[in-house]
Write a structure and sequence with these properties.
The protein has 7 helices and 10 strands. The relative contact order is 0.14. The strands form 2 sheets. A 5-stranded mixed β-sheet has the order 1-2-3-4-5, sandwiched between helices. A 5-stranded mixed β-sheet has the order 7-6-8-10-9, with helices on both faces. Helix 1 runs antiparallel to helix 2 and helix 4 packs across helix 7. By secondary structure, the chain is of the alpha/beta class. The protein has 2 domains: about 120 residues, Fructose-1,6-Bisphosphatase, Chain A, domain 1; about 110 residues, D-Maltodextrin-Binding Protein, domain 2, CATH 3.40.190.80. It catalyses: adenosine 3',5'-bisphosphate + H2O = AMP + phosphate. It holds the Pfam family Inositol_P. InterPro entries: CysQ/Inositol_MonoPase, Inositol_monoP_metal-BS, Inositol_monophosphatase-like. It comes from Modestobacter caceresii.
Length: about 250
């Protein structure tokens, strides 16, 4: 497993996704057991691979204790071994993902989001801009289970069309793939929830920021990164203005 960091991110995300499909096919006593097995096995595999292939790099993973050594490292892999555990546990659903990103000296340098149930991985090595959008209302990717109130306000204010789906990675990639126009989140996330999706979205030419328009920063002492905007660039000003108005209200 050699090549550039872009290639490695894509390969790791894809193969972790293949492992998760195998885990998912097993018999489990309940959904909680399936979730725990998926999270744990994917994390351990990714940690082992990164330890072997990039032994000098630090790792920040949702499923591991935070190692403060990452704060003085030049290169940190930020991974979510299974994004969308609820959807993963529901066998009919495809809207879950694997996130693998590399932060290097202050910036996201590479990343990939695997959508294993679709057999698809989008990575910074070769991602196209979204296709031309159809005529019609602004399409917002929203959480199917926990949509934040600000999204409902945006839908009403902009006469937008909500499109419900699971994992954060799936929602961000829906913008990259042209199925939606924007993903707005304000309900609380961590760096591993958005690092890989943001890296891929940036490579596709999309706007990415905090909800107030400020930059997304990674590998900070506190990995809590609660809000996110990923959208087609032509909608960025409109969405940021609407969000600023909602905040004042």
């Amino acid at each position: 497993m050699t090549g550039t960091d872009h290639d490695l991110a894509r390969t790791l995300a894809t193969r972790a996704g293949e492992l998760l499909l195998t885990v998912r096919s097993r018999d489990f006593a309940d959904a909680a057991a399936r979730k725990a097995a998926g999270d744990g096995e994917s994390h351990r595999w990714l940690a082992d691979q990164l330890g072997a292939l990039r032994p000098g790099d630090a790792v920040l993973s949702e499923e591991a204790a935070d190692d403060p050594a990452r704060l003085t490292a030049d290169r940190v892999w930020i991974v979510d071994p299974l994004d969308g555990t609820r959807e993963f546990s529901e066998l009919e659903r495809t809207d879950w993902a694997v996130h693998v990103a590399l932060w290097e000296r202050g910036e996201l340098a590479a990343g990939a989001v695997a959508l294993p149930a679709e057999g698809t991985t989008l990575g910074t090595s070769a991602v196209e801009p979204p296709p031309a959008r159809p005529d019609g209302p602004l399409r917002l990717a929203v959480s199917r289970s926990r949509p934040p109130a600000l999204v409902a306000d945006l839908v009403a204010q902009l006469a937008a069309e909500p499109v419900a789906m699971g994992s954060a990675g799936v929602k961000a990639m829906s913008v990259v793939r042209g199925a939606t126009d924007a993903y707005v989140h304000g309900g609380g996330q961590y760096e591993w929830d958005s690092a890989a999706p943001v890296a891929v979205a940036r490579a596709a030419g999309l706007h990415t920021s905090r909800l107030d328009g400020s930059p997304l920063r990674y590998n900070r002492p506190d990995p809590y990164l609660p809000d996110l905007l990923v959208c087609r660039p032509e909608f960025a000003d409109q969405l940021l203005a609407a969000l600023a108005g909602d905040a004042r209200g």
